[in-house]
Each structure stands twice: as structure tokens, then as C-alpha cells.
Amino acid sequence: MSTIYSVASSLDGFVAAPDDDLDWLLQFGFEPFREHHDRFFAGVGAIVMGATTYEWLLAHDDTWAYPGLPTWVFTSRELPVPDGADVHFVTGAVEDHQAVVERAAGERDVWVLGGGLLAAQYQQAGLLDELRVTVMPIALGAGAPLLPVAAPTPVLELLDTTSFSGGATELRYRATDLHDAHAAVRRPSTAA
């Protein structure tokens, strides 16, 4: 099981244009990415997201996109829950909720979905195992940053790249220092 931030980004490092606009991304369509995304999604057992991503999903989809999949939304506001959604609203630090999210995911992965602010909190708490960025062939000039960390990250290890028709490329990384420390917490030593 891993906690994975999987997201699309512009060439200049933005996951959304100003005002949380995703038209720049939607113009590429989903078909070139469908098979790759479906393989990733088949391994997801739980989702975490921020309120902005959650509200965008509610505003742009008539039905809940992830029925039956437990989802945690980090927010301090009361928000509606669509029919068929297994949504839990939480506040506070990501590390305060990770054990519950991981239990719900079982042997499958936790997907940090959407904006960079929540992903940056996961990274800085040492809970982000993988970063999968699909770099789209467009620059935005401004918007929501990919990973707005407050301090430099450790050097990331490139695990894989996947190219798509239309010029997009997924870069798959893991942070070795954080990954090794997080794995040790998950699998305590049995030595006496």
C-alpha cells in the first residue's frame, strides 16, 4: 500500500488555472489516458482531497465519481454529500487521520486527489510515498501550484515515465528518505 499524489500539471507547474479553472486540462480529453488511469484507479482503496477539489467535483459532475470508495475531505466547512458517496469530512493535520484512511484502503493505495496544498501537507508529514505527475504540453503562467511546500523536499527518485499521444508525459517519483522512514513506521521491527 502506498499514498500517492497523482495529478496533471502544466509545463510551468500548475494543477489549475486561476479561479480553479480546469478548461486548459479538459481540452486534452480523457481517452489517451483512460487505460493508464484505469490501471492506477483499480489499485486505489481510499481517496483524500481538499474542499476545493471536492466542491469542483460536485459542481462539474451530476453523479458522484467514486461511489463505494471511502473518501476523506479536509475542510472546516459543512458541505453536501451526494447520493452514493462514502464521504468523511475531517479537519486538522493529515497525520491525525492517516491511520484511519489506510485501514479503510486495506491492501490498496491511498490517492491524494486534486490540489497541491493537501499533497504538500502529506509530503511534509512524510506520508507521501509516490508523486505521479502527468505533465501536459501547455504553460499557464499562473494558478494553483503543483506542490507548494514550505521547505525543500528530499531528492526524488524517478521510478518510471509514461508518454501519451498528444505530448503528455507521466513522471513517477518516490521520495526515498520519506518512503524508507514511512515504511519503517508501518512495519515495526520484530527484533527483540
- Count every beta strand, where a strand is a DSSP E run of 2 or more residues: 10
User: Which H/E pattern describes the elements?
Assistant: EEHHEHEEHEHEEEEH
What distance separates the N and C termini? 26 Å
**Main sheet attributes: strand count, strand direction, barrel closure:** 8 strands, mixed
The helicity comes to 25-40%
Note the total helix count.
Answer: 6
Strand order across the biggest sheet?
Answer: 5-4-3-6-1-7-10-9
Rounded Rg: 16 Å
Query: Would you tell me the structural class of the helices and strands?
Result: alpha/beta
Segments where pLDDT lies below 50 for 5+ residues? 178-192
**Which shape, going by the Cα principal axes?**
globular
Strand content bin: 25-35%
* Mean pLDDT over the full residue set: 88
Please, could you describe this protein's structure?
The radius of gyration is 16 Å and the shape is globular. The model is unreliable at 178-192 (pLDDT under 50). Strand 3 (44-50), helix 3 (51-60) and strand 4 form a beta-alpha-beta unit. The longest helix has 11 residues, at 176-186. By secondary structure, it is α/β, with parallel strands linked by helices. The protein is built from 6 helices and 10 strands. The protein has helices at 23-26, 34-42, 51-60, 98-105, 116-124, 176-186; strands spanning 3-9, 14-16, 44-50, 71-74, 87-90, 109-113, 130-135, 144-145, 156-163, 169-175. The two termini are 26 Å apart.
